[in-house]
């Protein structure tokens, strides 16, 4: 199975920082966001990764190339730890790219993967979120798709006021034998970014999908929806209405959402606290910093 990472968006919420630097390369302590996502894919056995890029984002591909001059300088200095870290991105997976000329929605972006993935199921990983390495999500999704042959989504439960930010599912209990050790539901409907009063549930679609190849035909038949864009949610809803089975795994592990500034900063702090080399010192500094903040303690 191949992995597809749509990463052609404009990242307007991070401007001006992302005017020249892709959001996917913003650092989380010592690695860019995109490397965490590719690592998540390879951990699940997906060693063929297609990056769907856009204008000004060639540096994303560069990150996964070898850097002979830099590597030789580090080797000369005997800095083997940093040498290993610099080489690691190029050793993770086979990285391929294609270019989306204009960002016209997630469905439109995914359609660019058709010639690369062919007639096989494939995984889609959005470029601004990932899950904890010790609590993976993709392996269970891939296994479930192999058993059902349809669409497999990942869900998390969100607060009522947040449903307007996500695709939201209506669900029913899945067949018992599909559950195993994971919480599996059968999807009966999908709606993109509903108002809180119209939302069928609080189960929001995460940025992980395992899709059958006939999703491409559905995307071609999908008209622009929310925001005037071609939405992947709408294409999946079309297939659901036509009889394609859709299941979801409810994920209750740790998810890092770097798609907005607040979530990005939270991820930086979380990962810094957990970092093998920096964590203990950073946690100590953070405790003292919070304790010394004026007036905050009283409120």
Automatic annotation (TrEMBL):
UniProt entry tagged with the keyword Transferase: yes
Under the heading CDD domains, the entry gives:
UGPase_prokaryotic (cd02541)
- Any single biological process term in GO: UDP-alpha-D-glucose metabolic process
- Which superkingdom is the protein from? Bacteria
- Is Nucleotidyltransferase included in the keywords of this UniProt record? yes
MF term (GO), any: UTP:glucose-1-phosphate uridylyltransferase activity
Keywords, A to Z, come to: Nucleotidyltransferase, Transferase
Q: Which region is the signal sequence?
A: none
**What protein family is recorded?**
Belongs to the UDPGP type 2 family.
Q: What is this protein called?
A: UTP--glucose-1-phosphate uridylyltransferase
């Amino acid at each position: 199975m191949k992995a597809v990472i749509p990463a052609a968006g404009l990242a307007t919420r991070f401007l001006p920082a992302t005017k020249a630097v892709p959001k996917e390369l913003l650092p989380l302590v010592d690695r860019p966001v995109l490397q965490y996502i590719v690592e998540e894919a390879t951990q699940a056995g997906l060693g063929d990764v297609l990056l769907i890029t856009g204008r000004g984002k060639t540096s994303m591909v560069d990150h996964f190339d070898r850097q002979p001059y830099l590597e030789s300088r580090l080797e000369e200095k005997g800095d083997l730890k940093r040498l290993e870290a610099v080489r690691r991105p190029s050793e993770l997976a086979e990285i391929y790219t294609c270019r989306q000329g204009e960002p016209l929605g997630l469905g439109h972006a995914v359609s660019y993967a058709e010639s690369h993935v062919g007639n096989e199921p494939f995984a889609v990983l959005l470029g601004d979120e990932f899950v904890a390495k010790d609590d993976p999500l993709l392996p269970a999704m891939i296994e479930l798709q192999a058993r059902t042959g349809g669409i497999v989504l990942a869900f998390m439960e969100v607060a009522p006021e947040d449903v307007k930010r996500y695709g939201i599912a209506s669900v029913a209990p899945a067949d018992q034998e599909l559950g195993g050790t994971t919480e599996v539901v059968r999807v009966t409907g999908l709606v993109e970014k509903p108002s809180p009063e119209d939302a069928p549930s609080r189960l929001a679609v995460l940025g992980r999908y395992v899709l059958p190849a006939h999703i491409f035909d559905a995307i071609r038949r999908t008209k622009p929806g929310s925001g005037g864009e071609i939405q992947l949610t709408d294409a999946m809803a079309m297939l659901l209405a036509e009889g394609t089975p859709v299941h979801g795994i409810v994920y209750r592990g740790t998810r890092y959402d770097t798609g907005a500034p607040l979530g990005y900063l939270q991820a930086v702090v979380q990962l810094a606290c957990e970092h093998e080399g920096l964590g203990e010192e950073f946690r100590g500094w953070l405790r003292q910093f919070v304790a010394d903040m004026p007036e905050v303690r009283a409120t």
